[in-house]
């Protein structure tokens, strides 16, 4: 298994500028020293609460936002410094599916135009109308949808157009930024099945961003949990859900509402107290120490490194002892 | 009884099977249908069309041109210069014995052209300025919008008068002067809309797909600005006519023998007390008709294009 996408020590900070001279007065530390690698053909999930930087990470991978420091390697090439035209081959191989199907399609273009724009920009060789029809049918839409405007489609149909757009250029990697969160549950299931089907068919790699743990668990082989711009735990879906090690991951999994109200297993650790701190002014040391039930003095001054727990599992917490996993 | 019911069912069935293939309806087509259903707006379009027709066809019926002085009427404007079909002065004459019918036609066309050109300049300059400031943002945006703020802080009429005094009174100067002030609000509106649009996911999607920035502006931003821009431009037409009329009323607009509605109204108002009320009433009637219809049309366009009502 070779790594298709490798993110190394990536940080993204947004300066906040004020006044006529645009002096920098502060910065939002949206992503802090994130290191990840995605293998070819796998579905990698990125979870975390709102504002934890997962969308910024996705936008950085899509090269919509410039990284402040760190590197992005795609298929053995460093793409973090590319600009303008030199990005075109990368753009062709990496596509995106967006969260809100009501805002991700231009209301003044028909589905056909939306799809052909992508093909046109990358000088698709072959019949563009033919490819559009092919893409629509791949995503379960009749060819007549090419003539329809987004406002004439349902949310699920729009999302299918969004997926068709992502597939247009036969990409290797698709970044799904909350691709199903804006849809209602029955449509979610259809779209998830479609995504799985397409992945099997074309050997796609997904970077799937979400906050709905059950969806991510279902769809992804491996997961990373983000908190305040940092990755606090990574592992296979199995490892993370059956034996979460970081206190934040535990709290996150506990917070998933259980369909059975009598189930004693839910919320055994208690809900997290407090709010997520501001990324404008992240706490020193472990960013989670302000809300952590097992925080020690040590945590307030030193950033815990990701310690390997065997297999793919790793967690950034001083309270986690590597030996525990090794014994099992 | 039974037969008729069968017939009806048959008819309905025929209707159901006789569907035409679904084709997409663009937002613009929806807006057009909504506009056509707006009776007040359509009525106003008809009136405006009648006025335009009058301006085009009127000169063929005119007995006098707009600058020839009728020396007979001039001797006693109050009685001989009154509106009459016999003398050929359908709208009477002005104080100097010039035919008011021809002068009103000339003035109306001037005002309409001023309104259109002013609005077009606002449309072009304001949209370009606003889109560039809003889309590229940052320091460029700050500088461009501060320029707009500074220009806005100076009273409009003062700017126009200054330009007219410095550059001399002429048709072209007047258009430049009106255009120079009309685009400011348009630039602000367009910039605000662009800011909202550029963060929409479809713009993000276009960037992720590698569409170039000029192409994003042309294909994704501008078409979505269209509604707002059209509405504002249509409401700007009467504003421009009013501004021009005000300046002409002050005696600074179009120079003699050419004239505009504001100038005619001003002259008419000056002689109101001498019993020659028609000198004010005819141009005033056209003026009010144009302003009213333009506002109603603008309003109708807004109702038709405003995404909030959808």
UniProtKB/TrEMBL annotation, chain A:
Note the superkingdom of the native organism: Bacteria
A GO biological process of this protein is: transmembrane transport
A single GO CC term for this protein reads: plasma membrane
Q: Locate the region Disordered.
A: 258-277
GO molecular function term, any single one: ATP hydrolysis activity
What is the membrane topology here?
A: Peripheral membrane protein
Q: What is its main location?
A: membrane
Compartments in which it is found: Cell inner membrane
What UniProt keywords are attached to this protein's entry?
A: ATP-binding, Nucleotide-binding, Transport
Locate the ABC transporter domain: which residues?
5-253
Similarity comment: family membership: Belongs to the ABC transporter superfamily.
Question: What's the protein here called?
Answer: Oligopeptide transport ATP-binding protein OppF
Source species = Candidatus Rhodobacter oscarellae
TrEMBL record, chain B:
Q: Which residues form the ABC transmembrane type-1 domain?
A: 108-299
The residue range of the signal peptide is none
Entry keyword set: Cell inner membrane, Cell membrane, Membrane, Peptide transport, Protein transport, Transmembrane, Transmembrane helix, Transport
Q: Which residues cross the membrane?
A: 40-64, 112-135, 147-167, 173-190, 225-254, 280-301
Q: Which CDD domains match?
A: TM_PBP2
Q: Does the keyword Membrane apply?
A: yes
Q: Which GO terms describe its biological process?
A: peptide transport; protein transport; transmembrane transport
Q: Per the record's keyword annotation, is Magnesium included, yes or no?
A: no
Q: Which InterPro entries match?
A: BP-dependent_transpt_permease, MetI-like, MetI-like_sf, OppC_N
Q: Where in the cell is it found?
A: Cell inner membrane; Cell membrane
Q: How does it sit in the membrane?
A: Multi-pass membrane protein
Q: Name one GO cellular component term.
A: plasma membrane
Report the sequence similarity comment from the record: Belongs to the binding-protein-dependent transport system permease family. OppBC subfamily.
* Record's protein name: Oligopeptide transport system permease protein OppC
């Amino acid at each position: 298994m070779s790594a298709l996408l490798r993110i190394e020590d990536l940080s993204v900070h947004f300066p906040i500028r004020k006044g006529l001279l645009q002096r920098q007065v502060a910065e939002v530390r949206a992503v802090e020293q994130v290191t990840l690698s995605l293998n070819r053909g796998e579905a990698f999930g990125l979870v975390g609460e709102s504002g934890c930087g997962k969308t910024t990470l996705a936008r950085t991978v899509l090269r919509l936002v410039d990284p402040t420091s760190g590197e992005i390697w795609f298929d053995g090439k460093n793409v973090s410094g590319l600009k303008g035209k030199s990005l075109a081959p990368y753009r062709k191989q990496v596509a995106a599916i967006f969260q809100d199907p009501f805002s991700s399609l231009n209301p003044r273009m028909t589905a056909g135009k939306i799809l052909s724009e992508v093909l046109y920009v990358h000088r698709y060789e072959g019949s563009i109308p033919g490819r559009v029809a092919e893409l629509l049918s791949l995503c379960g839409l009749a060819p007549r949808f090419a003539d329809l405007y987004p406002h004439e489609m349902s949310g699920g149909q729009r999302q299918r157009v969004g997926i068709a757009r992502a597939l247009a250029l036969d990409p290797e990697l698709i970044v799904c930024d909350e691709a199903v969160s804006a849809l209602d549950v029955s449509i979610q299931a259809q779209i998830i099945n479609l995504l799985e089907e397409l992945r099997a068919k074309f050997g796609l790699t997904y970077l799937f961003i979400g906050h709905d743990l059950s969806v991510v668990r279902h769809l992804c082989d491996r997961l990373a949990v983000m908190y305040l711009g940092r990755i606090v735990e990574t592992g296979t879906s199995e490892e993370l859900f059956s034996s979460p090690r970081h206190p934040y991951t535990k709290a996150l999994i506990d917070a998933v509402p259980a369909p059975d109200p009598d189930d004693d297993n839910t919320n055994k650790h208690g809900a997290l107290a407090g709010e997520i701190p501001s990324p404008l002014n992240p706490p020193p040391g472990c960013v989670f120490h302000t809300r952590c039930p097992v925080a020690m003095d040590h945590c307030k001054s030193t950033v815990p490194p990701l310690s390997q727990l065997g297999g793919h599992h790793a967690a950034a917490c001083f309270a986690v002892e590597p030996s525990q996993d090794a014994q099992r | 009884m039974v037969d008729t019911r069968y017939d009806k069912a048959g008819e309905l069935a025929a209707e159901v099977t006789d569907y035409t293939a679904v084709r997409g309806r663009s937002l613009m087509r929806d807006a057009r249908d909504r506009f056509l259903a707006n009776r007040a707006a359509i009525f106003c379009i008809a009136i405006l069309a009648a006025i335009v027709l009058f301006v085009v066809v009127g000169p063929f019926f005119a007995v006098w041109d707009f600058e020839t002085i009728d020396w007979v009427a001039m001797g006693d404007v109050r009685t001989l210069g009154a509106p009459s079909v016999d003398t050929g002065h359908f709208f009477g004459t002005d104080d100097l014995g010039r035919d008011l019918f021809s002068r009103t036609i000339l003035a109306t066309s001037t005002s309409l052209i001023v309104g259109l050109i002013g609005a077009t300049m606002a449309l072009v300059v304001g949209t370009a300025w606003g889109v560039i400031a809003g889309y590229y943002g940052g320091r460029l945006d700050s500088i461009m919008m501060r320029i707009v703020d500074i220009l806005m802080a100076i009273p409009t009429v003062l700017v126009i008068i200054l330009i007219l005094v410095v550059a001399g009174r002429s048709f072209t100067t007047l258009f430049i002067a009106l255009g120079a002030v009309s685009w400011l609000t348009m630039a602000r509106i367009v910039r605000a809309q662009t800011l909202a649009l550029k963060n929409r996911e479809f713009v993000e999607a276009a960037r992720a797909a590698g569409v170039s920035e000029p192409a994003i502006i042309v294909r994704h931003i501008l078409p979505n600005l269209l509604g707002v821009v059209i509405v504002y431009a249509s409401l700007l037409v009467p504003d421009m006519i009013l501004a021009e009329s005000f300046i002409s009323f002050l005696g600074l607009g179009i120079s003699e023998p050419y004239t505009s509605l504001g100038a005619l109204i001003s002259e008419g108002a000056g002689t109101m007390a001498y019993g020659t009320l028609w000198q004010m009433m005819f141009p005033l009637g056209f003026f009010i008709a144009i302003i009213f219809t333009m506002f109603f049309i603008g309003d109708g366009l807004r109702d038709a294009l405003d995404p909030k009502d959808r």
